[in-house]
Amino acid sequence: MSVDESRFARGLDIRREVLGDAHVERSLAQATDFTRVVQEYVTATCWGDVWSRPGLDRRTRSLLNLAMLTALNRPHEFSVHVRGALRNGCTQQDIQEVLLQTAAYCGAPAALEAFRLAQQVIEQLRQESLTT
Amino acid sequence: MSVDESRFARGLDIRREVLGDAHVERSLAQATDFTRVVQEYVTATCWGDVWSRPGLDRRTRSLLNLAMLTALNRPHEFSVHVRGALRNGCTQQDIQEVLLQTAAYCGAPAALEAFRLAQQVIEQLRQESLTT
Amino acid sequence: MSVDESRFARGLDIRREVLGDAHVERSLAQATDFTRVVQEYVTATCWGDVWSRPGLDRRTRSLLNLAMLTALNRPHEFSVHVRGALRNGCTQQDIQEVLLQTAAYCGAPAALEAFRLAQQVIEQLRQESLTT
Amino acid sequence: MSVDESRFARGLDIRREVLGDAHVERSLAQATDFTRVVQEYVTATCWGDVWSRPGLDRRTRSLLNLAMLTALNRPHEFSVHVRGALRNGCTQQDIQEVLLQTAAYCGAPAALEAFRLAQQVIEQLRQESLTT
Amino acid sequence: MSVDESRFARGLDIRREVLGDAHVERSLAQATDFTRVVQEYVTATCWGDVWSRPGLDRRTRSLLNLAMLTALNRPHEFSVHVRGALRNGCTQQDIQEVLLQTAAYCGAPAALEAFRLAQQVIEQLRQESLTT
Amino acid sequence: MSVDESRFARGLDIRREVLGDAHVERSLAQATDFTRVVQEYVTATCWGDVWSRPGLDRRTRSLLNLAMLTALNRPHEFSVHVRGALRNGCTQQDIQEVLLQTAAYCGAPAALEAFRLAQQVIEQLRQESLTT
Fold first, then answer.
1. What InterPro entries does the entry give (chains A, B, C, D, E, F) (predicted)?
2. In chain C, is it the N or the C terminus that has fewer CB atoms within a 10 Å radius of its CB?
């Protein structure tokens, strides 16, 4: 893909800041010839084109992503963005409020799944903080 | 959440009757400060506001849930409600008919997934009945 | 499509009984060389393969369809099946209960849309009964 | 539905503040015996249970709803909530940012539809402000 | 958005070739300060990043879009891409085959809607060819 | 289900050719009294009614399925059809192009999931080819 370098570089910086160096290093290291194209595309568009914009603060963008990923039913990316939200300064209470709002608009099964996944991430982070 | 007590209590009773005491005890015991709010909300709304209504019998409500959860693509809740449906007096044939109908309206991949999950629940119940 | 004749014929009979002769005549008359294939496919599969099965009564099949079509967000077919449900002996209260249950499981926006569409069909049927 | 009075009353107040008296009066006036149950349920749950919570400000709740309604593909409710968002103090730029973020996560067709609908609401509000 | 010029220009050329100059002129002329950002984003990403790639021919890309837009339930964009598909050299029979395949995988309601919309576009094109 | 024998037989042949004898043998062997009905229905409709049609080549049908299954969010069937696509003569690059196109139209989370699953299938096939 003819992703121009500056867009990709800008996106990669923001992605590192939001999701953490460790996560991004792992994603890049795991990329294969087959998957590299989507890593580049997502870094350039989601992070380079959208998250780079100053119009909304990162905390709000994180909360929006949690709401959308619940509605879209994408558990893997949802968990990644729970981590990102907490790194971006969202509190557990912020996340709780967003997910409860999904219960009313996306239905109870969507919200129950989102709470279950977010709880797992919170547990993992607690474990990780104990071991470091 | 300012869930009034009577709604929650009424919902909890019905939820126990439909999903079984063991399942509900487990859900309540596993609830954390983070997830408790959604447990309360779902008990009060799905069970206290909707399932408590006399307009449809529980067997029909279970079948409707299986159809909706297949369409909504929510495997965890789907499996919970297969158990509930069998407890509510739905036969395996009732469930089979509902799931085959999803093949026509939600598409083959949705129905194949639903049959696979329902089959697993049926197996588990058979195992459980052998060990008790 | 090599739809065998008996399946199609059986499906067409049931479709007429559920949706009404007038609706089915109109669908068939409007079919073009381009759309005929899907009319035949749907008649043979949904009606000939699924609705023809004795395992569930038609009233329950109609209620399941209303729940699925709400979850799937398909307003045109939803309205067709509200009509079908009333022809199949579902009461307005049955439909009301199903749609309220969608509010809890599919979310409020899905249910609000479903109630709006069902109300329109009920109005139309009232008008039609006045003019005949 | 046994919606307790205080929840409904609290929800109705917030719904009026967010969506405007005119909109809410119209909804209530148009409610029929058939649709009243969902009006009451939505007022009590979405507005009385969720929007009443102090954990997130209304501006953020509006932005979350726009993101979810785009993902869920519910144009009618989306337009209602664009109006609500502007009443809640969201700027056009806030809305623009949310909808552009949906392009990356929900896909281009979802975002194009959301921009089209939001533009129509903005036009309508401009017309209304000229005629009053 | 910091869409680099070459990506946008490349995307705009392809978009014109696929959807026609008239359609693209209209989209650009109708763009407002509010909607311009999504027009630029979509032109740069969908058309500049993806459609510009040589790995699949345009006819196949059109058929893929029709299948995805049916699954995603996006009628407006679906109709735009039916036109694009016919311009790209897809035959009516190609489109018919794709849409029948959606009946099996996305369910009958999705396919019925897609056939209805595609039929309307075919009618419009017939009318347009008569008047020019 | 009154699936006529010739449709089922024709479907079974094509399903074997596309998905491989081993996969189909396993599916049939695992079928229970509960799940057999959906195996028969899917073989007769998806394979017997749709894939049997000469209007599109199998390679294109496979690519369409990958796009639809990504949009529909059905990981199990998606993985089955990645295998089928490679058997049908689709190259890894073809699949890569389809999945990148889903990023633009279905959103980044859908495409990231699809790439992850397809990569796993590619790995498994590599392992299998080493051990045989």
1. 4CMD/NDH-1_regulator (IPR052512), AhpD-like (IPR029032), CMD-like (IPR003779)
2. C
Claim to verify: residue D35 and residue D60 sit in the same structural domain: no
**Tens-place pLDDT, residues D72-94:** 999 999 999 999 999 999 999 99
- B62 & B118 share domain: yes
Q: Which domain holds residue B90?
A: 56-132
Work out the widest C-alpha separation in chain B, in whole angstroms.
43
Q: Are residues B37 and B64 in the same domain?
A: no
Interface A:E, Cβ pairs < 8 A: 24
Task: Strands of chain E (E only): list them.
Answer: none
Around Cβ A77, how many Cβ atoms within 10 Å? 21
Q: Is A107 within 8 Å of C109 when comparing Cβ atoms? A: no
Please indicate, yes or no, whether residues A62 and A117 belong to a single structural domain of this protein.
yes
Contact between F66 and E101 (Cβ < 8 Å): no
**B41 and B63 inside one domain:** no
pLDDT digits (tens, 9 = 90+) for B45-76: 999 999 999 999 999 999 999 999 999 999 99
Residue closest to A125 by CA, chosen among A93, A68, A87, A95: A87
Locate A96 and state its tokens.
């709780």
- Asked if residue E18 lies in contact with residue E87, where contact means CB atoms within 8 angstroms, the answer is yes
Contact indicator for D56, A94 with CB cutoff of 8 Å = yes
Which pTM value belongs to this model? 0.96
- Residue C24's closest CA among C4, C3, C57, C47? C47
CA distance linking residue C66 with residue C88, whole number of Å = 13
| Domain match, A47 and A7 both | yes
- Give contacts of F70 with chain A, Cβ < 8 Å: none
* CATH code (residue A102): 1.20.1290.10
